[in-house]
Amino acid sequence: MDIKSMTLAELTAALAELSEPAYRAKQLYAWMHVRLATAYEEMTNLPKSLREKLAERYPLTVLTKAVRLDSKLDGTKKYLFRLPDGNVIESVRMEYHHGVSVCISSQVGCRMGCTFCASTIGGLVRNLTPSEMAEQIYAITRDTGERVSNIVVMGTGEPLDNYDNLLAFLRIITDENGLHISQRNVTISTCGLVPKLRSLADLKLAVTPAISLHAPNDELRRKLMPVANSFSVRELIDAAKYYTEKTGRRMTFEYSLIAGVNDSGAQAKELAALLKGLSAHVNLIPVNPVSERDYKRSLVKNVLHFQKMLENEGIHVTIRRELGSDINAACGQLRRHYESGSGE
Ligand code: SAH
Fold this sequence. Notes:
- The chain is an alpha/beta fold.
- The chain has helices at 8-17, 22-33, 48-57, 130-144, 163-174, 194-202, 218-224, 233-247, 265-275, 300-312, 333-339, and strands at residues 64-70, 77-82, 88-96, 99-104, 107-109, 124-127, 150-153, 186-190, 208-212, 251-257, 280-286, 316-319.
- The strands form two sheets. Strands 1-2-3-4-7-8-9-10-11-12 form a ten-stranded mixed beta sheet, sandwiched between helices. A two-stranded antiparallel sheet has the order 5-6.
- It starts with 7 loop residues before the first helix and ends in a 5-residue tail after the last helix.
């Protein structure tokens, strides 16, 4: 069992097996999740014999920085981290007026197959463990020295396809004995695995899902997102309603605008009708062109028109602010370039 993925209760039990008292578990937990230690040697208030025993039994999951790209425009930093098994993943540090946000990956690769997305091109390699998700935040905190206030699970991978590890990760980062990030400051982006979204609603957490919709009807959504063959737009909207009923959280719908595919006035109208009566917020994202695909981003005037059409129907809309546009490879592209040997 990965020691950094354990809850404090699990860690206390594991240390009890080594005949260690509960306060040792608390000390160790704080070293891992507050002081963000990268080796047992740093944990100087633990007896040397215990540190040696732990090092033997429990390798500490630590990510190493392979690449960091710094935007010269707005402080965005893109990281490529190496996992203990040699795989690499992407994370991004962004600055907003309310603090520092980190966007993390939840899987190595992805099996959802969205046609506009670079992360899914090589398929799913494996799930990330809870500690590998948390370590992305820890490694960025160690690197920059600043506290992270917001987390978006919006990098590579489908978080609800790695549901149990996602929940364990949420427990770790919101734990008052760890970084203690507020649940309200966590956003989970999903392509819409309906049963998992409903299970998450039943937990009544204060985290906010962002639903990747990208199309106002089943026919078009199935062309863009294979997951739409498993769940209809109607089922997805009903699950979103259920989430809001259970938790009181307002839903965000992400809609990436692709020129000539999903950005017409008629499609905006159809989207507005779909979301009517829902306390929803729509985030429009001009699509990031991916070299392996031939989608183009919508013209600015079409983006603004799409926004206006939705607003006229009383829907709250934002256009995603482009951060780090000078280092703005689309999600998953940094990793792909790195792995194909073309550097960053
Ligand atoms: N699997 C999750 C989270 C990862 S993708 C999900 O589907 O939500 C994060 C967001 O980026 C999703 O809304 C996804 O549809 C969107 N996205 C992926 N590739 C994109 C691209 N090339 N341009 C714009 N948005 C993209």
